[in-house]
Write a structure and sequence with these properties.
The protein is α/β, with parallel strands linked by helices. It has helices at about 40-55, 65-75, 95-105, 110-115, 125-135, 155-165, 185-195, 205-225, 230-235, 235-245, 290-300, 315-320, 365-375, 400-410, 430-445; strands at about 1-5, 25-30, 60-65, 85, 115-120, 125, 145-150, 170-175, 200, 250-255, 260-270, 270-280, 305-310, 325-335, 335-345, 355-360, 385-390, 395-400, 420-425, 445-455, 460-465, 470-475. The protein is about 35% helix and about 30% strand. It is flat.
């Protein structure tokens, strides 16, 4: 038997390891509640725990969360770990500490003088800790997979990508994910990542395997209903090929390439029909069907979705109800058999964002500024009051202040100097481009508000004002 060693993050506990027992049913899962909180002390605790486990188990798999991953990489356990799963790992502690110093407005000289500084955001800054990190660069040679939330506020996508590339570690990024994976959706993503589950579009070559999956998945249900001639059991391969051509079919495979789950769908006039959601019996109750069901709806744009299922088979019927579908029709199809037709409509948003409009003192001057400085294009004839300008797929409009006052029969007060009520924000590739474009805007007539500055959150940014005093931000999160 193999062992799973779970190392929690800050504020966590060994009890979190219980979650991984279902994911590794053939392994003994152990969580470590470390008692210290420095890499030199906690690393020692982890090293002792691994040494003890190695006496009992042939292989040890490490799952480490956040700072637990950093502690693990400082434990000198490379040669005792078969493979590792890192969840939101801290991979550049020096950068994190120096970032926190900036947030707290603490210099290295102050930290060295005081030794430890308490911050308003609850973290203690330690000179000893910073020196240890600098003198002990990470050395990690274990095959590792990394899970990262795109909205992680502690580690940037560049930092985690650089680490993953350096260590040849596959990196999975959850869009909308956070540093702390805790919601149902985030935990489902985590589980499927560990299982190696990847949803792909099935091909024509998969049809025989899909038909086999169909018979195995629906067979027990049909037997329970004494429905021996159910279409899902009697369908021919020829008919299966014909049906496949009409639908988009998604599949999930296990590590051996066996298709263990599938669903299909077809959109007609904005209405999505979802059919044949199926998972091999031995893989059910693991969230695979739910992930497939949501994925087919995500991949196929629609305004309305519908499906039919046997009302006598309660688990799938109740699952669809929990997913927001409602019964709109029932149909008797045989003794004791009722087809339930379920639907869900996607309510269109009450509003759709259109554009940003700027009220100008002088349309001509403002058009000239934005076209010359940022590359906006326009077909404005120089006469009409309304101006549309485009930058790629983005649009802004200009309208003279005097014309707008005349249109609404009202007079307005306008900010003197800089308009601090809103901004237009532009991204550029690198820090150097921020400096370059800042100077370019000044050359084109902009007024400086904030020269290029590198902020504590890792962004280099600057602010200028256009001819009407509207604030413009130019920024980048990429150093090189």
């Amino acid at each position: 038997m193999n062992a799973i060693l779970y190392i929690h993050g800050k504020g966590g506990s060994a009890t979190e390891s219980e979650h991984y027992k279902l994911l590794f049913p053939d392994c003994e899962v152990i969580g470590l509640d470390y008692q210290t909180f420095t890499p030199w002390e906690t690393g020692q605790e982890i090293r002792i725990a691994v040494k003890e486990l190695k006496r009992r188990f042939e292989n040890i798999i490490l799952i480490a969360n956040s700072i637990g991953a950093f502690f693990s990489m400082n434990a000198g356990i490379d040669n005792k770990i078969q493979k590792a799963y890192f969840i939101s790992p801290i991979v550049d502690m020096e950068k994190l500490i120096t970032d926190m110093m900036k947030w707290a407005n603490v210099t290295e000289q102050e930290l060295e003088s005081k030794g430890v500084i308490h911050t308003d955001f609850g973290e203690d800054l330690s000179w000893e800790y910073l020196n240890y990190v600098r003198s002990h660069p990470i050395e990690w040679h274990v095959p590792t997979q990394i899970l990262y939330g795109r909205n992680d506020q502690l580690t940037s996508i560049k930092t985690i990508s650089d680490f993953a590339n350096k260590h040849q570690a596959p990196l999975a990024v959850m869009q909308g994910g956070e540093h702390w994976f805790h919601t149902d959706e985030q935990m489902m993503f985590l589980d499927n990542w560990i299982k190696g589950m990847k949803i792909e579009i099935a091909t024509k070559q998969d049809v025989p395997a899909l038909l086999d999956l169909q018979r195995k998945a629906f067979g027990p249900l049909c037997e329970e209903l004494d429905w021996k001639d159910a279409p899902v059991l009697t369908e021919s391969l020829e008919h299966a090929y014909e049906e496949f051509a009409r639908y988009t079919t998604l599949k999930v495979q296990n590590d051996e390439g066996l298709i263990i789950g599938s669903v299909n769908g077809n959109v007609t006039d904005g209405s999505l029909y979802i059919g044949r959601l199926m998972v091999l019996p031995e893989y059910q109750q693991q969230g695979i069907g739910k992930q497939l069901f949501r994925e087919i709806q995500s991949r196929l744009p629609h305004r309305h979705a519908w499906l039919c299922t046997c009302q006598q088979v309660r688990p799938p019927y109740e699952f669809y109800l929990r997913e927001g579908f409602k019964l709109y029709k029932s149909e008797e199809v045989g003794p004791g058999l009722t087809w339930a037709y379920l639907e869900k409509s996607i309510q269109a948003p009450r509003f759709t964002f259109n554009t940003v409009g700027l009220f100008t003192n002088n349309n001509k001057a403002t058009v000239e500024f934005y076209t010359k400085t940022f590359g906006f294009t326009t077909s404005w004839d120089g006469v009409q009051p309304n101006v549309e300008m485009f930058l790629g797929n983005n649009r802004i409009i200009l309208f003279p202040r005097s014309s707008f006052e005349q249109m609404v029969s009202k007079r307005f007060q306008y900010p003197e100097g800089f308009n601090g009520t809103m901004e237009l924000s532009f991204d550029v590739p690198t820090f150097a481009d921020v400096d370059k474009e800042y100077q370019n805007t000044l050359n084109c007539g902009a007024k400086s508000v904030l020269p290029p500055t590198t902020e504590p959150w890792g962004q280099r940014t600057c602010y200028v004002a256009d001819p009407d005093g509207n604030l413009i931000e130019i920024g980048s999160f990429v150093k090189q």
